[in-house]
Specification:
CATH class of the largest domain: Alpha Beta
CATH topology of the largest domain: D-Maltodextrin-Binding Protein, domain 2
CATH superfamily of the largest domain: Periplasmic binding protein-like II
Distance between the termini: 73 Å
Number of domains: 2
Order of helices and strands: EEHHEHEHEHEEEHEEEEHEEHH
Low-confidence stretches: 1-46, 57-61
Radius of gyration: 29 Å
Number of helices: 9
Mean pLDDT: 84
Largest sheet: 5 strands, mixed
Strand order of the largest sheet: 4-3-5-14-6
Oligomer: single chain
Amino acid sequence: MHLKEKGELNYEKCKSLCKNHPDRRSDPRSCCSGSCSKSDAGSSAADTAAASSGTESVASADASDFNKKELKYGKAAGPYTVLFEDAIKPILEKEGYTLTEVDFSDLLQNDLALNDGEIDFNVEQHTAYAENFNEAQKGDLVPISPIPTVPAAIFSATETSLDAIQDGAKVAVPDDAANTARAYVLLQKAGWITLNPDVDLSTVTQADITENPYNIEFTEMNSTNIPAVLDDFDYAVITGSIVYNAGIDPSTALLQEDILPHLILQVVVKEENKDAQWAKDIVAAYHSDKFKEYLDKNNNGLWFVPEELFN
């Protein structure tokens, strides 16, 4: 029933019932032009109350996520998850956290799950990789703390010196963008190539090589496959996690990289979680005296430890 008396709008009555509607008598769609009923006005109030209740529920859920104590982390074969489980996980468990591993066969699947909210964090990538993932997958992953990192290095199954390089040497390098760049930067450090000085070292490609005096033949391939075919190449650039997984003795490296800031491994979360209490507690664990004591006892030269961890 419309709010009219003898064909005339009882404006004051309408306004009192429809206080949640716009006060626009000139708009034929507005409540007070007679376009709604008492039930409409009541529904509006109920809708507002429901919306308010829904907002409060969301806020409550957000607060719960912010302070939650049950966390899932993406696990991958490699030294970084092992380090987390050996040294960081016990610290967090003493603070009341329950941590559940979720296994992934590769980092891409690990990151996709992280981006979709299926896990809370991982410790398997550097900033450059996360940025490339975000660009390619429209992700919103962010690093929240550096962690100890195993440097990439040049290895050989047949040579014991960089000086043994010959004209036409065959060299294997990783094929993903971030690690391809670090490989060519390392080969420049070895004195084997020269890169375009005007190009950002974090994004260099084979096309940015300006001098190749040894006429090196480069093969870009999946980094996980390089150790298995090391005998087919004169030299290869292998990243730290792959060295660890393949059981290669890191002391046999012929030359290690100077790790650039964007290549230091990180704890990574979704951007919306970077200020959560649990994220802060993970960061604090990596910066703790207990973790420093662990590294002092267990670092056999494998790890590069970022200075900011303990400063």
